[in-house]
Amino acid sequence: MMEFKIKSGRPEKQRSACLVLAVFKDQVLSPAARSIDNVTGNIISSLLKRGDISGETGKMLMLPQIPDIPAERVLLIACGKTAEFNSKKLLKVTAKVIRKLQENNITEATLFLPELIIDNTDIGTRIEQIIIQTTHSNYQPDSLKTKKEEKKSQLRKITLFVPERRDMTAGKQALQDGQAIAAGVKMARELGDLPGNICTPSYLAAQATEIAADFGMKIKVLNEKAMERLSMDALLSVSRGSRQEARLIILEHRGGSKKAAPVVLVGKGLTFDAGGISLKPSSAMDEMKYDMCGGASVLGTMRAIAEMNLSLNVIAIVPSSENLPDGNANRPGDIVTSMSGQTIEILNTDAEGRLILCDALTYAERFKPSTVIDVATLTGACVVALGAHASAVFSKDKSLTEELVNAGNESQDRVWPMPLWDEYNQQLKSNFADMANIGGRKAGAVTAACFLARYTENYDWAHLDIAGTAWLSGSKKGATGRPVRLLCEFLRSRASIA
Ligand code: BES
Ligand code: MN
Ligand code: ZN
């Protein structure tokens, strides 16, 4: 585990394996770089003058030997034009720096990055973002690798330098919150990256039970028997083709006043989605281990807000199952009755996410929620629509949509609105049941959301489709931990107005 510290004082006096100093285009030095420059015979400004490092964002120069200061090395990181520096670039340069430190086997460093001014941010926000990004970049999915040489060196200690003593108070708060969010993101990634043979519904439930114990939260785990008693036949129908029993995980953080209506987060926890009888093609099917990333992000968010002691009531519901082909699995054409009483014709067994979510969404009603947000890797169509940069948000509530879009911008874990217009509902018509579970080729992400909307009429609701954002493919294959940062930001601003 990495350790973070906040410190102020004189930059030139800092003992560290590496001081990380920012420089800008047109030979502009950050305040800390200026201090070091002054006591080292202008070593930094001469390097800039000679053109040894361009000011282009992300360019770096490692100085292994520097006179007159106790630090062992200096790493210069270029940040582009001073006036154009922003939060996005702060994350980018932080990521670059961490990678460089790892490559150089440096396990301890002092970063002079919090002092870099960005419009509309305070130093606390910047410290938080640096901590979240640093932890993110330091993460390696190697828990199942047994050979040491395949593991990269990891950073152990990062000191974040603040320019003024009076920044220490904001700094220490940001240190706590940043680490809490970073740990939530990390947990979501670790769970996401685990394979389906390890991360099963009961494994997810055990992890949730562990967080509950660690942070004093209430937990309830329903097994299939308990779900049968609640008539969750849509959810159970998906699990019938699996040897692993389904679970419904309910985790409660009661940080608000006793009577305050809770925010309910519902996360799709499909631990492996082979498609069922409507079997998926085999290429990249391994990535369907990530079909529980909605559930993982909801659990990661609960961990984060519990560690932050957020003064808000928040309840997580994670329906968890596998979707596999089997003699007992759903057949195309099967009709099931959801907990809400509405009947569903399952025309494609691969549209299983909405089947497990609809019962979880009906279950959410018992908490008399102020708001319900579900998070799901729901449709391939969403990946086509928005790619990997934004999660989709669907809601009939304009102000809720706005809150989520703002929280996304603030946390740099962005969402973008999509329609839930009534016209799309025609596509869900079934000749034999109240609705079909698929809406045809057109607007697949929208018809999936329209399906869920039929189970959420009794409260304020938003749906996040994270199919394009929850993990990366190719050589960078791995869970991203999205949208933990977004959800934490959303809940934090809810807590601040409560
Ligand atoms: N988990 C998938 C959605 C998915 C697919 C996410 C690929 C990320 C990448 C979901 O259960 C699914 O299979 N959806 C189907 C729905 C279709 C049958 C209407 C899809 O998107 O193809
Ligand atoms: Mn599916
Ligand atoms: Zn799925």
Provide an overview of this structure.
By secondary structure, the protein is an alpha/beta fold. The chain has 2 domains: 3-138, Leucine Aminopeptidase, subunit E, domain 1; 182-497, Aminopeptidase (3-Layer(aba) Sandwich). 35% of the residues lie in helices and 20% in strands. It has 14 helices and 21 strands. It has helices at residues 31-39, 43-50, 87-103, 123-138, 168-193, 201-215, 224-229, 233-239, 293-307, 353-364, 380-386, 398-411, 444-453, 484-497, and strands at residues 3-7, 19-24, 28-29, 60-63, 74-78, 108-111, 157-161, 218-222, 247-254, 263-267, 269-273, 313-323, 334-337, 343-346, 371-376, 391-395, 415-417, 435-436, 461-465, 471-472, 478-479. Strands 8, 9, 10, 11, 12, 15, 16, 17 and 19 form a 9-stranded mixed beta sheet that branches. Helix 4 links the parallel strand 6 and strand 7. Helix 4 (123-138) runs parallel beside helix 5, helix 10 (353-364) runs parallel beside helix 13 (444-453) and helix 12 (398-411) packs across helix 14. The longest helix has 26 residues, at 168-193. The protein starts with a strand and ends with a helix. The mean pLDDT is 97. Zinc ion is lined by residues 270, 273, 291, 352-353. Residues 270, 273, 291, 352-353 line the site of zinc ion (ZN).
